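[job 4471] stage=fold_predict status=RUNNING
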Amino acid sequence: MSDTPLEPENTQGDLTQFEREERSGPTADTFRSLHELIDYVSGKSLLQLPQEDSGLAEPLPFPFLAIVGQREMKLALMLGLVNPNLGGILLIGPRGTAKTTAVRSLLDLLPQVERSTCHYGCLPEDVETGGIAAICPDCARKYAAGEPLTTSDRARLVELPLNSRLEDVVGGINERAAVEHERMRIRRGILAQADRNLLYIDEVNMLADEIVDAILDAAAQGLYTVRRGPVSATYRARFLLIGSMNPEEGHLRPQILDRFGLRVIVQGLEKQTERLEAYRRVQAYQANPRQMIAQFADEIEAASEEIQAARQRLREVTIPDNVAKPAIKLVQKMGIDSLRAEITWFEAARAHAAADGGTEVTSEDLKTVAPMALRLRRSPFMTEYIHNQQGEEEELDSLLKTLGKKSRKKNSSALQK
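[job 4471] inference complete, writing structure tokens
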């Protein structure tokens, strides 16, 4: 420890902004955007931490902002928290590039949502869509008495196990209800549990086709229906879909790839200094998780407040025509047929503008998120297919011109009437 005495408080005005932030800790007002926050934390130095017993009762996620580099991946995930309507996020890259770590590290940044207090997951909107019979007897009594069926809780990260069955994903007959001789009910599956949460699929390219199709249909419609014999149930499934994959292990079907709004190419760190810093942060986390996490607590809190504020501001953000029309023209020049390209692009740009405190999307917002929204959108197969089909279309048009030009005579008396 240095023998130099601490400076008096009246000298704070002579310190640089960085020194003041180091002393007082950053707040949501310290950073003008998520970009500044990410850049600040990337250059933060760690304190030396004492070793502690790592036998924890529950795992503590690695701090999201402590991940070195990977600026685009971190920005994409944070924009997804601001605006779940951007269509999901796909992380593509080799092993060991912190894809899964980044997703699991989002826990401290997740927003507050209304969650059911019932074992069956009954919600007030279930009554609105299916009547009082759509909820369990206990919740029906609470609803009739005016008691709440939900409580405010932080959104959750729901992970889909790779060995999941279709019944696990969509739901099946509730064995508990059958044992207790209750009315037969459908047990909520993982998709229903993911409502208003994040659904993470690691190695999404390895899932069975029937499971992927069920997930994509639910994600597109925001709800799905399960039928098991005479029993059926409809559940909401409004979630932010996040997937990760290693291209070495297999390709993703085009229709699946098209459903992911943002596509992030995650590569290994190139700079030696970054790789060394990544090692030091992992070592510090393994040696003393709680104290390492505490060093990023202020930044995590600032990011959480920024995301919450941006979510509130998002509804006010608009895209003027003079910004949107040139962007659509660019999409057309790229030969992208899917309308999801500009939908995702614009929604991501709205989230970016909201995170920067704006209420109107600018060209800079579009440029920042364009690579994530537009890459891997073109289809060489469809381009070649349409090109080959053009010859047949021209032949058909030519043959149609050789048909007689005689047209049906109009009934003049009918026209006069």
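[job 4471] summary: The domain at 315-396 is CATH 1.10.8.80 (Helicase, Ruva Protein; domain 3).
[job 4471] exit 0
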